[in-house]
## 1
Amino acid sequence: MPTSVLFCCDYNAVRSPMAEGILKKLVGQRVYVQSAGVRHEQEIDGFSIAVCAEIGVTLSRHRSRSFEEMEEWGDEIDAYDLIVALSPASLRKAQEYTRYHALEVEYWPIFDPTGLGEDRDEKLAAYRQARDQILARVQERFVSRVAG
């Protein structure tokens, strides 16, 4: 069981904040959890906030950040026990760090719900699907190990 986990995706606006919030909710302070994006050009997505609120996960105070911003603010990427990449671009970025640091990287191919659906209900359904994929992976990877 890692003591620190960094989730990452493209913009740190949809999937990685959901994963960060879900893991924090399920394991509390037993694991240090953060998230980052390859780029920082967007703020937290409102649909992510909404679908996570449905399961008791609060994302409204999340501030999107990139890997570079984390390092500028003093957060050492190589200090994490595990980096979980949720998109192909973030997997490539995480693997760059393994060239110089002994890091464990996992890839969870969680689909990107942005741009899907014609109306609010369809959009929410797509975001719920991504949330539920993340929730299942977090439970499988972390919660069963904490309980066991």
## 2
Amino acid sequence: MKIKTLATSGVIAALYVAVSLLIAPLAFSNIQFRISEIFNHLIVFDKKYFFGIVLGVFVANLFSPLGVIDLVFGVGMSAISLIVTILSAKFIKGQVNRMIVNTIVFAIFSFLIAIELNIVFKLPFLMGWVTVALGEIVVMSIGIPIMVALHKRLNFKEII
């Protein structure tokens, strides 16, 4: 891994953690509006962002009130969703379309968080899935125009 990629991954992870902890009450419950999930869209620009995003999720989840189980389910859900988005990218034209698919993928795989919420809080599975998926859809949909605008200024492909 190049030094530039390693440093960028560290910055992305740090930003993910900082934003997650800034809004911690909304980031670690059955109704999640984890604004840092916007960073998941970086995967659309380059698959090298995978490590920074996953590291950010891991470190942020170290502070989760749900405990160690959030390291397994939260990090697992993010890693699986990112991998599915990476694999689907060759079939989807355009960055915005890929971000829409990325949003849908994260919403679908949020069933893993619903399992976790069922284990920890005894929250009904379907209710957990719906609330977490809706949070993902809202946050990541809002993130699409933000990432498009940032990409025009920063060119995410060149940063990593």
## 3
Amino acid sequence: MTDYLYDGSFPGLLTCVYEHYYGDRASGIYTKENYQQTLLNTFRVVETDEEKANRVAAAVEKKISGRALRSAYRAWLSSVPGREMIILNYLVLGFRKGPSVDSLRGEEAVFALQSILKKISVEKERMLQFVRFSEMGSPGHEILYAEVEPAHDVLELIGDHFADRFSTEAFIIRDVERNKAIVSAGGSWYMAEDFSPDKLPEFTGEEEEFRRLWRTYYDHIGISERRNEALRRKFMPLRYARHLTELQG
């Protein structure tokens, strides 16, 4: 049994799945930068191999289902510790049981993966609810901009929704923790890695006034005697609240 170290990409993870079957069995799968070696564990670095990754992806779709491959990818987007081995165990079981694997909720491998998928689904819905855009730029060159801090890497899962909703406008949604962004214009979008906000334009004058009015409205409709900060934090963690216009000072 050997610990596998990979580059943190999904093709890299699928390469580890390949090596698990055709090389040493994986005792754990970790990203290179997060691995802590011990005297008891042996490890090997698994370089991403697109051909091997594609073979595994094709095998999952053929022997299990396309849904299983999508589920594995969504689970990989999570920040759940040990997600790589959860995905591996799910796929190993899937190769044994076939398309019926997702119905085997009593199996630990299935339960663990579906628990991650539930977290991803909840986080995606929260992003759809709590994204707040601000207008930047100059007349005729406006762009909508929003910052988010999702617990899981769900940015790409909300791209289609906002591209459809703002099909005639340009916008950017930036994940400040992962420093990546959805960049969209004219109804199409792409993911920008290593996105820097340094060159973004200033807020428009109308935006500054709108933000002031929105905060004033929020303050006036609230009933101070019924304010419960602990309850609010329970339903809206700080990572969401600090990016809401109405809650900014």
## 4
Amino acid sequence: MSVETVKEYLQAFGLESRVRELPESSATVELAAHALGTQPARIAKTLSFLVGEEPILLVAAGDVKIDNAKYKARFHQKAKMLTPEQVLEWVGHPVGGVCPFAVKEGVQVYLDESLRRFTTVFPACGSGNSAIELTIPELEAASRCREWVDVCKVPSQS
């Protein structure tokens, strides 16, 4: 899939015109933050896991890590990330551009509570140089998330 596929998907929400295609890479949290002129925490990274035999996406703030105990308590197994090949095949987006929009049928999307600290966040849009700024309610609607979860460790606020 591509940025164009994501734009078509986002038309249903009236958001397609807000997709930004960047002149530089946004394939990692740090690169995206630099390209967008924002703090890394506001990058909504989309992580791909296998739960049972099904792929899921977990969208979390850019400054968090998976808390293995919380993840296991919620999904009843250890966190097992998909390989880049599995991500492309099962989710439909390449690593670096994985987003919760226009994913393949059957892929469940979860939003992590770490995102709720922000008014707006920046998820990717299907490529390693794209993003969109969304409010949390817009992200919730456009991702068609199954539910909110609390499976990450948020760094201490100083």
